Amino acid sequence: MWSDGAVVDVPVYARDALPAGAAIAGPALILDDTSTLALDRGWRVEVLADGTLRGRDVAGARAAAPGDRVDTAVAVDPVRLEVYGNLYMSIAEQMGDVLRRTAVSVNIRERLDFSCALFDADGALVANAPHIPVHLGAMGETIRALLDAHPAPPPGTVYASNDPYAGGSHLPDVTVITPVHDAAGRLAFFTASRGHHADVGGVTVGSMPPFSTRLADEGVVLRHLPVVIAGAIQRDAILAALAAGPHPARRPDDNLADLEAQIAAGEAGARLVREAIGRRGAAEVLGYMGHVQAQAAALVGRAIAALPDGDHRFADALDDGTPVVVTVRVRGDRLAVDFTGTGAAHPGNLNAPRAVAVAAVLYVLRCLVGAPIPLNAGVLAGVTLVIPPGSLLAPPPGRAVCGGNVETSQRVVDVLLGALGLAAASQGTMNNLTLGRAAGPGRAALAYYETIGGGAGATARADGASAVHTHMTNTRITDPEILEARLPVRLRRFAIRRGSGGDGAHRGGDGVIRELELLAPLHVAIVSQRRDRAPFGLAGGAPGARGRTWLGDDEVGAMAERDLPAGAVIRVETPGGGGFGRR
């Protein structure tokens, strides 16, 4: 047995042969039918009357008792670190449960297009539930922007923001931030959730216009709007904000209901942290927020150190030819990610706000770590980012961004993984499909949005997965029964697009075929990529198949919209992933 830094000979016991009252001192092994207990030196196990094994650290290196307080600035207990990492994750997951149960929209209740997370008092991400990567990496930027605007947010106040130029992603993604204070009124931490609202205005229903050129085209902008003041929800102010601007929200009551669900989720997270503080004390609970970030930094540093030193450059492009370029410079356990060479700000809506580019880098680094650590701000501790101002990944204020969040973010991940030689391109798009109509005589406004999975890129060790959401999206597809019950559509086909993955020593995953028949006239829009440029293979692997879209009888490009009559069919064939290695 390996114990105290060496291999030692130890006695071995069968657990079912141990009588009540037996005592065993470590080092030793105790074998059961389905498990092995390794008992280190300094530990002693007693067999209780009911067969339970009770271990004691007789050497004195025990963890602190429940009433103790740990000076977290001096020492970190590794067991307690693991417990706290899981505690913070659990709190974020429970926030998500509250949000899902109380929201009204299909996007949040059924597609799970939302994210919840816990942040420290500086707005640094501590832990998140395993939700949407493009949300989670960007939310910390939103909270830091809030602190710039409101350095001392008062107790009992909750804010809503969707501004892409203050840490947001695109306007339908609304972030609700709850600052939480201690008994003395000092800011202690934040809880936050980001949910994709079905419509926040804009020139097309669903707030994902394919041909927007200005942020104002995409809907209402909320800039750190106080949605709760002194504990009271500001419903009139929320509805007034949703009605503002040239293209107001079409279903403000639905927005209000989802915002109330997000507020409830934030309060649930705050309550759970307060309960933990009541059990263990503020110094320990809040101190370990820093420790889990430091753990992530250390593990990412170790993963970076395993990469070959040098400069690793990779370039790809959007369908219109706009280049996305990255140089990854590895020096020991430090990393520089430089996007110099990436194209200038896009004339359309494929601009990705800086926060989205940061989220993509955070996601890729988290993928390098094999251990199940929370994705948090510590991941970026050893990383230098260079994002040229005015570029596609840091556009000037006011530019349209709805496609950058969902499409350009995917290309950023592909080129990062390509530069590191880790994976061929995945489908590289979220295939954003929007159906809707404006309100009219005798009918309510309708807005529905979904993203459609495709093929994952292959790696040096495995084939890519088929018919899945990849990288920066992690939503579900709406169940057929829910889809057909709530919308005037019929799902005609939903199948794997066989053979669309790229060939290679490891094949790329196959895409999806999805067909919807309209049962009433609707406005239909598609925001996508990889219709002209195929997902690349790596190390000699073949590219995946390009995507294709038909709106009615017309095959359209990556960006399109149509008013379609009842009986028209929408068909989307999503891209496959690239292959890895020569066959």
What are the key terms here?
alpha+beta, 3 domains, 25% helix, 7-stranded antiparallel sheet, 583 residues
Summarize the model shown:
With 583 residues, this protein is α+β, with helices and mostly antiparallel strands. Helix content is 25%, strand content 25%. The protein has a seven-stranded antiparallel sheet with strand order 10-9-13-12-11-14-15. It has a five-stranded antiparallel sheet with strand order 22-23-28-25-26, covered by helices on one side. It has a four-stranded mixed sheet with strand order 16-17-18-19.
Determine the oligomeric state from the structure.
single chain
What is the rounded Rg?
Answer: 26 Å
Residues in β-strands, percent:
25-35%
Query: How many discrete structural domains?
Result: 3
Main β-sheet, spatial strand arrangement: 10-9-13-12-11-14-15
Discrete helix count: 9
Determine the structural class based on helices, strands and strand pairing: alpha+beta
Q: How much helical structure, as a percent, in the residues?
A: 25-40%
pLDDT < 50 stretches: 61-74
Give the biggest sheet: 7 strands, antiparallel
Mean of pLDDT: 91
- Give the distance, in angstroms, between the N- and C-terminal Cα atoms: 43 Å
- What best-fitting shape do the alpha-carbon axes yield? globular
| Total count of strands | 28
Structure in words:
By secondary structure, the chain is an alpha+beta fold. Helix content is 25%, strand content 25%. The chain has three domains: 56 residues, no CATH class; 219 residues, no CATH class; 159 residues, no CATH class. Helix 3 crosses helix 7, helix 4 crosses helix 5 and helix 5 packs across helix 6. The chain starts with a strand and ends in a 10-residue tail after the last strand.
